User: Fold these one by one.
Assistant:
Number 1:
Amino acid sequence: MNSVKSISRVARVFCSLIACAATFATLTGTAIMDSWRWQNPRPQGNPLYAIRFSDAKRGLAVGRDGTILRTDDGGKQWNLKRSPVNTPLYGLAVVGKKAWAVGARGEILFSEDRGEKWKSQKSKTKNHLYAVWFYDERRGWAVGVEGLIMATQDGGQHWTEQKTGTPKQLFGIAFGNDKTGVAVGAEGTLLTTNDGGASWQAHTGASSANLLRSFAVAPNRFWAVGANGTILHSNDGGVSWTAQQSNSSSHLHSILFVNENLGWASGADGTILKTSDGGATWSAQLSNSAQLLSAISFADEKTGWVAGEGGVIYATTDGGETWSPQTDGGANVRDMFNAVQFADKDRGWVVGMNGCVLGTTDGGKIWRTQKSGTTANLRGVSFVDAQHGWIVGERGTALRTSDGGSNWQAKPLSSQLDLHGVTFVSPTDGWVVGEEGLILFTADAGESWTAQTSNCRFWMEAVTFLDAQTGWAVGEAGSVVHTTDGGKTWKLQESGTRRWLYSVSFADAKTGWAVGEEGLILKTNDGGENWAVQISNIPSNLLGVKAVSPKRVFAVGLNGVILQTQDGGRRWQRDASNTTTPLRAVAFAAGDGWTVGRDGVILRYAGNNSGELRTILGK
């Protein structure tokens, strides 16, 4: 039963990744307008699935959304390289100057200049490939779904399928020489070959756990790792296998040896294991991370790297006794970000889960943690200038600052309902909205709050005011309420939909937009008396919208979607976000823009400029 649950979990992980990739590929069929650059994490935040170093200086890493990273200095600086694809890349092999990456939909990429430039190779399959191994510059193998093994004898110019006789997913492959190899996969699948893959033999009974990676250090010495801390070892080319005691229950996703005795494995929950006796004993190393570390690489007995969830990369120069991050963005800034606001082009704030508040005074080049004094999930932020701001969140959480966030003060409300949106039009006058149609108003900077009658019992997700009198709020079941007297009276407006509306933004008293479920975009030209649907060509939820002007509007949402219109919404086009991570909010100030989302993602609008943005995270 545990095996069934385990394979189900692995399958769900891969399926969700492929679904994201499929959505991304479909959406990019629309014209791409402008681009956005990573500000957090840096150099990027997509999960990394494989990392390989050819020596102590030169290395590559690949991951979701076609991510390719390259370093020439041991990882002190990682550079994003242009990828021919935007689908996930799961496997990576490096031999000298040459490198191969494999991924979803049968993608195989090849580089002959240490990963500087990449081109596609024809794999002759549309099935997903999860791992690749090259014995030398000509002979290589890749494995994937439904027992798929592809092989090449000419460096990937031609790939042919090898018959395996199994329908199980294959997640790892390794060869000890050009003849002897092992492939591993779901539910303890173990395949071996002694003829370069011309024939494969199945071996059963060693384990029922999902086996996620394999490694070879000699023609007959192999290791495999997998679910629930499984480590298997073979001394006879895979004919027989022995379980090694890992002393870990975490899923292990990667294993590597630098010789027949010294090796490491990595996996879920920040797990790193080391052995100095060929696996007879394994001991845990402190990674200082709780994230999935799905890939590991060592250049020698001392110098190594692990990579994984959120784009993290850690390095060691002492054989793993200590690990140091090579990417910016610690655990405290990799939470879900829910809202973003900028008072001007330099000064901005981001809020999210676990009481996370970040502030910047230079447009996001440096983001610094601000002490919120709470662990609540923070949902909304509003600043009227560079000093005066408010944050709201779950369980009636309300915070205020009068010094730009250097100090945040809790301002408890009488309501313990979750608060989702906040907006202020002056240092004293503001509104918050939340569960059960809640709308509260303050005229004294939050010292006291008065409930206003929304005439709606649905959840309110967002609120916006143009001035002290004119405002709108939107939420559950297509709810839209409007006031022209500062909230003394709120009137329901017919939106024409019962889909959830997550965000609203107005360019002026007449022209506004609301976005919501299943790519819904609504526009009004008469202050909300009438709302019309605009075509987004997006099937996923849109969670944030910002009207920069009556003609120029941005919307963000699930699967890393960023939409832009320059004609008031007659035509919406896709911006290049370079991620499928969900984006929850978007803000603009003086022509500059930012969007934030899950896993601590902060992107900055780069327009048509292809130059890189330098970002530093500080405490």
Note: The two ends are 46 Å apart (CA to CA).
Number 2:
Amino acid sequence: MSLYKNKYRIESTRLPGWDYSRPGFYYITICVYKKQCIFGEVANGVMYSTIYGDIAEKLWKEQPAHYNNLILDEFVIMPNHMHGIVQIIDPPALENSKTPSRYSVSDIANGYKTFSAKKINLISECTGNPVWQSRFHDRIIRDEAELNRIRHYIRNNPRQWEIDECYPGAKKPIPFKSYYGNGIKKKRIMGDNTVFP
């Protein structure tokens, strides 16, 4: 940990020198401020959303309308966090010869946090209250096997809620990293222009 503005701050886990607007698959986790369970509750392995959870889901699904180089993959809204896989693609060429926008994982996650927080604060009549934690976790998905493991983790997240590290009062949480596999760093091309670093 290092000091930033006289406060301890966790070092970035991002890959140095990596362009996070580069085509590929990325896994994102965003937690609610102070991990409060505002999006709903899980009962018998099923997530039951509040109106705030419905807003979070609706606005996540609308993200591709705002970012022309984004395709959504598997995602889940949980009581106090969300997981999503995004695919960044090369932006389509524009007719008027302007340079197409290349949005990064940070642009997408921060845009989502901003739009959803504004909407949730408007509904709750509490303008300006934090909805999300200031940071988020992302991971470059390195190969097809890892992509499938993370999809499986996301799909099963409600069934694993009571042992999730975000579960309030969990005795032995399972860290997210245990689902990532061995993180082999080999290059592989999958589909159109998608490179796993």
Note: The radius of gyration is 17 Å.
Number 3:
Amino acid sequence: MSDQHPSWLEPPPRPDLPRPDLPPPRPDQISPWGTPRPSGPWTAQVPSPGLAAPPAPAVAAERPKADWSWWLALLVFIGGIFLSGLVGVGLAALAKGGGMYYVVGIIGEFLPMGLLLLWLNTGHAGWQAVIGFPTRFWKEAGVGVIGGLAVYGATAIGIGMALYAIFHLITGRDVSTPEQLPGELSGIRLVLAFVLVVVAAPIAEEFFFRGCLFGAMRSRAPFWLAAVGSSVVFGLAHWDPGSETDPVPVADALLLVTMMFFVGCGLAYVYEKRGNIVACMAAHATFNLLGLGFIVLGVG
């Protein structure tokens, strides 16, 4: 029997030890972490103790999920509307005047929001991260303004014209959205209307419809389902039957509800892409500011 071992019995070379059958590696053949460069024949070297390993690639943080149910948030919101209605009736009985409509409207926006804040703070820790409050406030507000212009162009002009034509074809008459700002807009009424439409409504409505309602749905469903579900509620919230003395035709009320549904979908898209409530509030405020401007100028 031969004294030489067969080659297949030889142990494999250890990559952490020098190989005598190869010349020593040149300095340009060893990377800072002791591994060979592509042109070097050495398979591996022991990492230098004074050098750290390269950092692992960063992983994008997942958006926090809401721990509340959408239907429970809706119940809290409805409770706030009922409470604001009681307050509004009391104020209307105490004071008369053309501007009282807007004062009641402002209270009616912020009172449900206050009840939602109380509910979130008492039982849902970390809700701020779910709804999203950005550190770069003005940047997100600027992006929201651009988003509001896009939503207005797509819904009030593009989709709105198509809806007018469809409703006209179905009803056989010209339809129009109900008048949402009664009375002459001048002086104190114009100031109060601005506060209601451009400040109170965007802040309070976006906090609920996108932050609380869409946020809860999005934590459990894909975007399109959460956008449609929250926008249906957003549209129905704008149902305006009018009054006993001045009723609104059903077709006109349905036209407004349908248009607000598409507006809600557009605002949900802004919220999905930006991940914070400030961009949505700015987009909503821009949308309403354009509408208020056209009303004041008598356009449309």
Note: The first helix runs from residue 70 to 94.
